[in-house]
Design brief:
Blueprint: H1 10-32, H2 44-67, H3 73-99, H4 103-106, H5 108-140, H6 156-161
Length: about 170
């Protein structure tokens, strides 16, 4: 959000709303589908409800970060706690989503949604695990990976071209 001029952030806010709808509409569709409550040995329906709660928290954080400038320290710390909880949820989601093949017989939409969400969780966890060593190295050896002030570091050129990688 901070990359756009303050007087012209309406386009990115509309894009944010569209992205939220793309995430929330399938979740709510699967939630209200009567076949989703059928028996399953794994708690996929509970995971779906938890995922919807996390989605609403994500929407709240997105709105707060879009409106506040500067963002208070307490909100940043709360967001990091939310990120840790989301990381744990993603691990559990991936484990359940990949093991629940027999649930596809009874509640097909729920199973396929949870499977897709589990695969996306694995991709996000992999990206996180790929970037963590760079964050740690940059903290241990100050500005060795990225020093924006002097425009140096191992990752300066990639981050300069795509700054969103560093601030995930």
């Amino acid at each position: 959000m901070r990359w756009f001029p303050k007087n012209n952030r309406i386009k990115i806010r509309v894009l944010l709303i569209l992205c939220v709808l793309c995430v929330l509409i399938p979740e709510i569709y699967v939630l209200v589908n009567p076949r989703s409550t059928r028996f399953c040995a794994f708690p996929l329906f509970n995971m779906l409800a938890t995922g919807i709660c996390f989605t609403f928290f994500m929407i709240g954080f997105s709105i707060l970060f879009a409106l506040m400038d500067p963002v208070p320290y307490q909100l940043k710390m709360t967001f990091h706690v939310f990120g840790g909880c989301t990381f744990l949820y993603s691990i559990i989601q991936a484990a359940y989503g990949l093991q629940a093949q027999e649930c596809g017989i009874y509640s097909e939409e729920l199973y396929w949604f949870e499977l897709a969400e589990g695969i996306l969780c694995i991709l996000c966890i992999s990206f996180f695990l790929l970037t963590v060593p760079f964050w740690i190295a940059n903290k241990v050896w100050k500005n060795s990976v990225l020093d924006e002030e002097f425009r140096t570091g191992l990752c300066y050129e990639p981050v300069n071209c795509c700054t969103c990688i560093w601030h995930v």
